[in-house]
## 1
Amino acid sequence: MQHKRNIHIQNHKIELINSNKPSSSTYVIFSFGDTLLPNAKKLIGKIHINPLEDLSKVGNIALTSNTNKKNLLIVSLGNKTELDLSKLFKAIKAVASFVNNNHNIAELDLIYEDSIAKLLKSTTSNLAEQVIFNFFNNLYYFDNFKNNKNQLSLNKFNLISENELQQEIQNVISLINGMYLIRNLGNTPANVATPNYIADAAVKISKLSNKIECKILDKKEIKNLGMNSFLAVSQGSDEEPKLITLNYKGGTNKQKPIVLIGKGVTFDCGGISIKPSANMNEMKYDMMGAATVLGVFQTIVELQLPINLRVIAPCTENLINGKAVKPGDIVTSMSGKTIEILNTDAEGRLALCDALTYAEQFNPELVIDIATLTGACIIALGHAASGLYGNDDKLIKDIIKASNNTLDKVWHMPLFDEYDEGITSSVADLANIGNWTGAGGSAIAAKFLSKFVHYKWAHLDIAGVAHNKGQYDGKMINGGATGRPFSLIIDFLRNYNYS
């Protein structure tokens, strides 16, 4: 028996509906090599097929019977023996692109077979979830500030499978809600997405469950905590900084909370150490760490995951006015350590170090901070992977495993003692930058953060993966904010085993 599970799509949102009524859809079939046509006949039924085009590529093929005309989208996955998750994800992206560029497709039936999961040594449940999630993530577009909206014609998606996949469909909706939140926050311009705007998003999330506590600290409260390093970043802005915390109690009272910290610099001009004007518009993405932890938090709540999760997002602008922090200024962090600020454009670590100290009071199981921290990480790894640092071998291995499960790539980077020289100051406990050559810049920044850590900790430098330089492919597919490393963090949390 085939099960048909439906998703309704409207106004950038998706929701679960139930219907087994016959429909006039475009059918999507994943197949291999010369088995394309036999599989099509088997799954769609005995409808005459007379295609003349190359079926090794995505193609739109008319299927006709006496009374009906249907469209068949056959997607080749190539050689069966060479299939991997990367090839499957590329095929899904191709389907999403095809749908996005063909406005006559209002309804889509994706026929999902167990055989693909078996080939990839995955479970039907897990792979079905990944397939649907990646499809919808690749349909994402952002037109909130356009008069001429992108009219996606697709309004109904049907998953057809021999298996009952109701829960998987519901899970995908929770995943997409979190991912779309991240990408929408990132793509919203900085004159709108201020620290207060991010705080309002957190308050909205807190209303999803009575298991959530939300706390938004203002400038006065931040100062009372002694977070002078974080406040130094905000000195040049008229926008008040916000320290956002969300706490979800989904686990037992005995479970220590997992803490996620996200850098939330809603616009970064570099301060007095000002950035070049070229591409400065991309600095609206300097809050993608904060956006990521909020999106992850929302999804975990909607999935009702049995863990205790706390997120912390220090949010501010880094701009210039008469009160802006100056190179050579010394501030005292919440930890009591003094910091000589040699470069005001190395501001992310100044906000994060106080957040890392703030997290200690919660006696965390572990802490992961996520930040668009250094351009040096892009030099080292390009746009393929996040830089991964940490002080606990098991935590590092678990994050790498989650990376492999989702193809949300990371690369383990060193925290050698030699990098201590890069944060040495003659007049304070620490300096916020190393040398002016940029050598080892990502590692030196991570080494700086490690000085404020007294628990299991990992740092993800997402500067190279958080956004696509604001560019959009085709009809705005995969544009701007990517949402990475959302999938990685979600997989890590879903599979985490308390010690």
## 2
Amino acid sequence: MLTLTSRDNTNIKNTVKLKNSSKFRRKTGLFIAEGVRVCYDALLSGAQIDTVFVTQDALEKYPEKTAQLCEKSANSFTVTDDIFSLISDTQSPQGVLCVIKTLDKVTEFDTIKNGGKFLALENIQDPNNLGTVLRSAEAFGVSGVIMSADCCDIYNPKVVRGSMGAVFRLPFIIAESIPEFLSENPVLTSYAAVVDSDAEKITEISFDDCSVTVIGNEGNGLTKETVSACDHKITIPMCGKAESLNASTAASIIIWEMIK
């Protein structure tokens, strides 16, 4: 296996761009996943691995998994610790990083008319929040996730890592807007999650078997257009003095109530 030692190597330069630029990720159809568990989850989930970068320490510490990753990838390189620090997005890297082809999940939504409980996200901006929401959605069995085009990039390294592999397994699509998606899928009963005393308490409703719950931006919530496009308004009842919950916390509570 070839060892890369120069930061001017094209493979290294392009991987740094993939780490930092959503525009470059869209242009190339590639993104990065880092860490032994996340990279191995990608392999087990059938993701197409384009390139693997590993340090010598990682080869010795994780011999079986790194061997499988290298075997299944189109290209594999060992890199020095200094070079790995350039492409890494973590403070304490494990020395394993994969460049992966973006995922085609659209066909998994072709049967949406047959039912399922979906989650829609509007303008979620924090990649850590998005990663956590995806992780919870997969863990509790959400049928799929719809994201508005103004959400942060699902292929952001922090989202991929925070989802703990859910990004590889959970059906998702990007919609131009949530109201547009709802109008194109009238079969879904839609619920808008809001902070509103007039909304139905989430603990007192039964979600339809063919439904979608919409969660909004961390600071501003849902747009008026999206709330108006939904069939119902729902809220999480709270006893304390907090006016609202973190988006990922609210999503986890809502998902639990949807699926139970």
## 3
Amino acid sequence: MKLLVVRMSSIGDVLLTTPLLRCLKQQLPGVEVHYLTKSGMASLVETNPHVDKVHILQESMSATVKMLRAEHFDFVADLHNVPRSRRLRRRLHVRWKSYRKNTLAKWLQIITKRAPKKGRHVVERYFDAVRPLGVHPDDKGLECYLPSSMDVAAFANSTIGKSKVADLTAQPYVVIACGAQHATKRIPPDKLQFLASTIKKPILLLGDKGDAERIRQRELHFQPHVHNLCGKTTLMQTAALVRTAAVVVTPDTGIMHLAAAFQVPTIALWGATDPAFGFSAYHTLHADCVSDSCWCHPCSRTGGERCPLGHYNCMNHQKWQQICQTVDRMVSAKTPQTSATEK
């Protein structure tokens, strides 16, 4: 059987498909698994041993369809289930199945502020798309495979900007994810400054160029034990730094799922969204931090560009001092790593 998995974005969502990829290979003898995604996400699956071939989404639908039709697939598992992926699967004229996005349940939680009594993680819901093939979850976690050029020793000898990776990772360190795609999921700048100044262990700040610019605009200044790497790392370098972190502090973003893929203890800070939506850190040690004094949480399925009420209490009223103390304890309990085993 030749099967196409469709998940075009984003970092976390692609990582959340990896249990399904593993189970396809393990439970369907002889299956050939192909994966369609955007170019920026390709590195997350190119080295995955459960994927035989990665296809990059083209600029036009016609070009993408032409490329995929040449493969003569037997089945399409649509794990994106958006208008574009629906048009694509119809035009391929092969058997397909998708999964339910639970949009109504999310909106009911947003309106009523009551979490569902029982909900399924999105990883488990993804398996609805392959259940007709007899594939089921194996109750194991996410996976992220780095290229051989980024094994622990080789990566330690590389540099990021003007910093040697060996120096950045010499002691047990904390990764703080500075940003997220949507503003109402990000750590506020003043709270980022508080974390960086209060946590006494080595800290690596990770994020994209937008995060670097926001830090510059707010004129945030950090102590020597804090290394601002925002905008300086590739996706694979970010993954490699998360891989050997002692603990990761992150909002609802892709770095949370990278940490889960490497089984790194995680403190997840929830702003506009909520872990009950089914996107919490999967099968790994983690703590979900939700402000218990914010009556308006959650307010969005995916986050937005501004707080609807203007106060952003879901993040501002987190227990920041307690979070810092927990991080310090977790890092102190972590013994220095002299080696690591890659997945």
## 4
Amino acid sequence: MNVAKLLEKRRVDWTELERLCEAMELRGRTDSVSVHHRGAAGVARFSTLYRAACADLALADAYQLPPNTVTYLHRLVARAHNQLYRTTSASPSGWFRILFEDAPQRIFNDGCVRVATLVFFGLFALSMVMGASEDQFPEFAERFCGSAMLEATEESFQKPLAADPDSYTARAAFYIQHNTGIGLQCFAYGILLIPCLFTLAYNAVVLGATFGYMSREGVEGSENFFEFVTAHGPFELTAIALSAGAGMRIGMGLFNTRGLSRVDSVREAGRQAVPVMAASAVMFILAAFTEGFLSPSAAPYLVKVAWSIMSSGLITLYFVILGFPKQKSEGTSLVRTARYADLRETRIAAVGGSDAT
């Protein structure tokens, strides 16, 4: 059987793929075509027909079939591709799904986020203990932070916290810019992995040593310092670790391509990092508003402690309860499998049919 006759027999599948495309364009799902195209079965059938149409197009191009057939297949493949890779509109429901479904589950299961969290909080806790133990680790905080910085910190907290309420908005804006700058720095360095880990470790050691130094006996302003940092600490520290983890995820996509081209691998890693970075941005904003309005206020210390406990509880709820692995829909898994397989086949075709993993 020649290629022309073979492709002619494939017209039944092309017509079916057209109907599925129409259903997805109108309703966003394949259910309306027939009872056999409901849920996961419809997604599986759509991906199978799409991949077969791609193969038919390659044959039509290779054997120089009539231009109308080639043009038809080009349009059909492009139409199906747009449905398979279509982007989600920036609707409130879409952002809600990203923040409260995709982000916590990605954070819970992402190895890069785990590494960043362990490095940051591990070094932070260790540096705080070493900075506070002046007898066992003399001048540890002074070496890492510098005597001038520690003296300036000590001096700035000698006066009681009672900032002018008129300056709260300006303080919140400053802290949003400052905190986001730290997060973006960790995120940007993440693509090279080592610079990201170094920046993350440096910030952890400096912050931990400062906390340890301010907890020493005889340090002036220590009570005011801890009263200031108690409220916003959980959100701010967690956001730094998350931003580093998101950057490292993109870096892993650059070096561990899993058989994809480097560009496609980084693009896929970027899609995985977006929910993590979105959660980090929200926490940076919450930390900045807390640091601008509640932390410097004359509110009772118990109020700030209560806010800190509530913040820590919400973070734990967000990561553990919302992030605990759930049974994902079979249709979503099939769509992701089809996308990954399509990217892999594009890579294989680019290197002449050999799977370069």
